[in-house]
Automatic annotation (TrEMBL):
Keywords linked to the UniProt accession: DNA-binding
Residue stretches making up the OmpR/PhoB-type domain: 244-310
UniProt protein name: Transcriptional regulator
Lineage: Bacteria, Bacillati, Actinomycetota, Actinomycetes, Kitasatosporales
One of the GO BP terms on file: regulation of DNA-templated transcription
Keyword Nucleotide-binding attached: no
Organism, as annotated: Streptomyces monashensis
Molecular-function annotations in GO: DNA binding
Length: 435
């Protein structure tokens, strides 16, 4: 097969492929191994589904209904391009006895439209508006997997993880915010085996790109000068870019800025005090003095009080990495990660955020099994003694250099067996990674 993202190569017998896939699915659900000819994108999705605790006999759950669903859909950015989806895909879905579906970035179905009889059949597996169809909820499926891997996906018959979904075939493509690149959701076409064709995958991808172009016209992109940007990864003192001016913040002001950027609703003085100081003897007067100095530095038009908050949205490299990880865009998240968050900070909230962020990214890298991404992490200052990552790298790139480094790390671990290894988020290091 020339394109691993297409379910069936030209000339393949769909019925025979279904039989082979059902046997492979049974092998995986009983023995945990994935035999050929299961595509790599499907095999990886099956493994993610199993790790998430999805069972092959499960079903989707409805999370939003009635008024809650209507209110959520009305405010969702993809509501603005639903007329476009209907114009481009509505007739195709109705005439082909297919369904047009749109989900949000969490895999919740917002709209399911199309052929009436097909919709009644889909109701039996809860393929309905308001139901969660993320990979972590129902396993491999086109809309859920498309938002998980952030690319167009086609899922054919028994490639679906849940058995009751295996009579169906679907193709979906993620739709991004044209300003930020954030995944907003996915557009999907669901129906019978006839959709297992390269044209259906190309079709939904073209529709998704048209929707992004429409969103760009409806909401013109902001000038970078209009968006305050906070850089706090891999540096002890954050840098704020505002109106084209770069301002280097002190360590304490960096901590405050990171926390306020993550809480646009604002934080009270008591909340900030607990977040910043492990020492309970620090008084509110000390914090107010720091905030007064920060307000003089940034200007009262940006920093407000009662509660303390930024008066405009502040983008940060922290939220960029988090959004990409949440969307399953592991490569993009790794590219944006410049190092640990404010590595010298001991503020309780910053320490928790720093560890949660680095642990989440390294777990995603290990699961992703991309040798280049693992090597980048292992050779970075914060990954030089990360034994778990070096083991993962040796599993996918067992070169002499990698094996030698792994052997040296394991020898060091054996030599220091009397001391408890440092741990971060459950992952074993020879010592806590350098920060």
């Amino acid at each position: 097969m020339t394109d691993p993202w297409v379910a069936l190569e030209p000339g393949a017998d769909p019925a025979e492929r279904v039989r082979v896939l059902r046997r492979a699915h049974e092998t995986f659900t009983t023995a945990g191994t994935v035999p050929r000819p299961v595509r790599s994108v499907v095999a990886e999705s099956w493994r993610r589904s199993a790790r998430a605790g999805v069972g092959p006999d499960g079903t989707a759950s409805v999370e939003l209904s009635d008024g809650d669903l209507g209110a959520y859909r009305a405010e969702h950015p993809l509501a603005r391009v639903m007329p476009l989806f209907r114009e481009l895909m509505g007739t195709f879905a109705a005439d082909g006895e297919h369904l047009l579906a749109v989900c949000d970035a969490h895999g919740r179905l917002l709209w399911v439209e199309g052929h009436r009889a097909t919709r009644r059949r889909a109701d039996g597996m809860n393929f309905v508006p308001g139901a969660r169809w993320s990979e972590t909820a129902v396993g491999t499926n086109a809309p859920g997997t498309a938002v998980a891997v952030d690319r167009p996906v086609q899922v054919f018959a028994a490639e679906h993880f849940i058995r009751r979904v295996q009579p169906w075939t679907c193709a979906a493509a993620p739709v991004h915010d044209p300003r930020t690149g954030r995944v907003l959701g996915a557009v999907d076409i669901t129906g019978g085996d006839g959709l297992a064709h390269p044209h259906s995958l190309g079709f939904v991808q073209a529709v998704a790109r048209a929707a992004e172009a429409q969103l760009a016209l409806l909401t013109p992109p902001l000038s970078t000068a209009d968006i305050p940007m906070l850089g706090a990864l891999g540096r002890d003192e954050a840098e704020l870019v505002l109106d084209g001016r770069r301002t280097r913040l002190s360590r304490r002001h960096s901590e405050i800025a990171v926390l306020l950027a993550r809480h646009p609703e604002g934080l009270s003085g008591d909340e900030l005090l607990c977040a910043l100081y492990a020492d309970e003897s620090v008084t509110p007067v000390t914090l107010r003095a720091e905030l007064a100095r920060l307000r003089r530095l940034l200007g009262p038009e940006l920093l407000a009080s009662r509660p303390y908050r930024f008066t405009t949205a502040v983008e940060s490299d922290v939220t960029v990495v988090e959004r990409r990880l949440e969307a399953g865009a592991v490569t993009a998240a790794a590219e944006a990660y410049c190092g640990p968050l404010l590595p010298g900070s001991q503020a309780p909230a910053i320490v928790r955020l720093r560890e949660r962020m680095s642990d989440g990214l390294r777990r995603a890298l290990i699961a992703h099994r991309d040798p280049d991404l693992l090597a980048d992490w292992a050779h970075a200052p914060w990954g030089e003694e990360d034994l778990v990552v070096w083991r993962a790298l040796a599993g996918v790139r067992p070169t002499a250099t990698v094996r030698a480094r792994l052997a040296a790390l394991e020898a060091e671990l054996t030599a220091s067996a009397g001391a408890a290894p440092g741990r971060t988020g459950g992952a074993t290091y020879l010592q806590r990674p350098p920060t």
